[in-house]
Amino acid sequence: MKNIRQIALIILFLAALIFNAFLNVDIVGAQQNAAKPVVSLTAEERDWLEAHPNIRLGYTDTLEPEVIVDPDGTYSGMLVDFLDALNERLGTRIGLRVYSISEVVDKAKTKSIDGIPNLHPEYADNLGLIKTQAYWPAYLAVFARKETSFESPYDFADKRVAIIDKVHITQKFMDRHGKQATIVKVGNALEGLQVVENGTADLFLGFSYNSFFISKYQLFNVVTAHVFLDSPEWFGIGIRKDWPILVPILNKGIASFSKQEIHAIIAKWSYLPARKDTIKLTSGERAWLAQNHTVRVFSTDHAPLLSYKGGKPSGISVDLLNEVSKLTGIKFDITKPLRDFPSALKGLIENEGPDVMAGLNPTPERERVILFTKPYVTSPKFIFTRDDAPFISSMANLSGKTVAVIGGYVTHKLLAKNYPDINLLIYKNNEAALRTVSSGKAFAFIGSLLATSSMINEFGLTNIKASAPSALPNATVAMGIRNDWSELRDIINKVFDVIPESEKAAIINKWSSVKIEYGIRPAVFIKWILVFAGAASGIVLLFIFWNRSLTKKVHNRTAELESSNKSLAVEVAQRTEAEKMLRESHDYLKNLTDSLPDAVFSVKMSERTIEWANDTYKVTGYEPSECIGKTTEFLYPSKEDFLSFGDEIAHAIAEGNDVLHAEQLIRHKGGDVFPADITLSFFKIKGDVVSTTTIVRNIAERKQVEQEIQQYQQRLKALATQLTLAEEKERRAIAAELHDHVGHSLALARMQLSSIPETKSELEKNILVKDVSNILLAALQDTRDLIFELSSLSMNEIGLGAAVSEWLEEQIAKRHGLKTEFVDNIGEAHRTTLDENLRA
Predict the structure, then answer these.
(1) Residue 95 to residue 113: CA distance in whole angstroms
(2) Which uninterrupted H or E stretch holds 294?
């Protein structure tokens, strides 16, 4: 019993520790929630909102993506995101209802709805609504086919421009800037984009958020050519006239949004370039930009900050520098490094080049000679070892061990200074250092968790793991800039300030293989506390009951165990052999599927959840671990595509097919969409399909080849048509020549000959005969000229040189009186090699 009491005390002690840990988590979560911005309202405004808890606004879903009605009946879109954030800041429950445009107008007039969330001020006046302050910008945008030339934002001359009928804003714009254009009226934005794609119009003038339809309806030959960010049309909320107190309440909520926050909501749903006017430059910074420097950027091959694939740079720092370039026009030359890190750092310090080091740890020593931007990545430093290395818990376990480091890095200097008992192997780059650990030459590598994890994946070093956090300071990464270019440092910092945090996080997550989540929801905490408390009580009761009955059962069980040992040994041997065969079969299947150039999934029906995947990275960009447990929706460009293909699968199952072949657009992890050939094999149990084996093959190259073949066929048809037209033109020319010259001459000769018998004197007959002779001679000469123009007979008889000389004499000298000199430089050896077709 004493042992039981000790066990119970231990369990209760553990429960107290867990409860305390969960309690601390909840306190942190409550503090974080309390930090959210709250709009301050007057007592009168709070009383009014309490008396009007259900405020309903009406809008239409014909202007996607402002409001989208999802298949399950829920709403999403730009205005939905804005209203959700507005409700959170005001503490309101403003709801949204979706109707047709005419219904929205009628319901606003009759107060069946309380307002319209996105309305031009002029339209609000026409409907008798009172207006909030304008908060929502609508940017005019020009859409074009990829191959269409569009040199400037107002390049509409001699082009067919589609605009939506009866939209005052675009009509007014074209009246001002498109007088030399041909206007094509369409019914809606989707139709405008479609007439551009099929070639009925060259351009479509709409709004920036119309780019949503490009991805939704796969109009991949259409691009956003220009967005007029400098001249937006502003919209606000229209409210019923008998609720004037609601306007200042909404204005306070609207005022709590920054321009960047509104811009980020719009950019989430449509293409929207960053605004240049959000960066305020000093006169010195503008003067520096005016010098048009080409900034030389250096970075080691250091994923995910910067790496080189196919000779092209990519990574977090490249994306950030591209944002700087978009907003400022600065040209960055990011070439693959031809020297090591220490020499590049020396060149930066001495202003000899590079001008920028894209990923550099700012230390007090470096800050004395290098200018640093604000840090853009921070990550803890971890100890990385082989999978089979002994357990590592701290830096103390590395004493006497060999650690690979990069010469000149902060990690190298800190280890050399603070850990003299660690043996250091110094390398010039990360790949060489990590491969040393992978091969066992070095015991460990210490580096940023974010960067090192990405590099392990990049270099395919699957036998390296993150063993434990190090005691070294976190890796803080900024951009190091030559010390005489403070203007560049300040410009980059200003760009970093205007990029929304969500966009920065998206850039980092795009290239990072490390995802960390913090916090536990209260519901989860309560669930686990109840589970643990019940389990603890059950364990205590179980121990009490078990202790009493154990003594009686021991003797009986001992005899039973002795008799079953022999049969158990046989069963263990059989199971061991079966497991061995199963492992061999599994390894064979894995090697087989991994060798395929396609992505292979096992998908559970009808949830369409991925249960197993081969190495799909080369096709979809996803590791198997990122796919398993998810529905296949993330592989499709849109939810509509996911549902549509689900209907196709259901139809194939209903028809009793065993296999389904289809072509479908698939979204790569990087965001690109590519055409894929999909083969589904249905696995049935008792006639019901329980899962599918799905093979996905990227056929983008095949589609490109097919498209090129179609283009070649069209060109051949065009050439054949042109050849036929040319032949017909030549026939007409020959007929005209015969008719106008030879035919007339022969007709005249006949007339002269017919008049000879009627002539009385011999002299007149001789004159007529002479005239006929001259006419026939002219006809003969015209015939010879025509024959010569069609094909020179002398070319075949006396050669190309003689034919050209004869042509110069007949066509140039005799007709036009010009003297020419013909020089034949064709050598005797080549003269006989010119075949008849080449001479012609």
Answers:
(1) 10
(2) strand 294-298
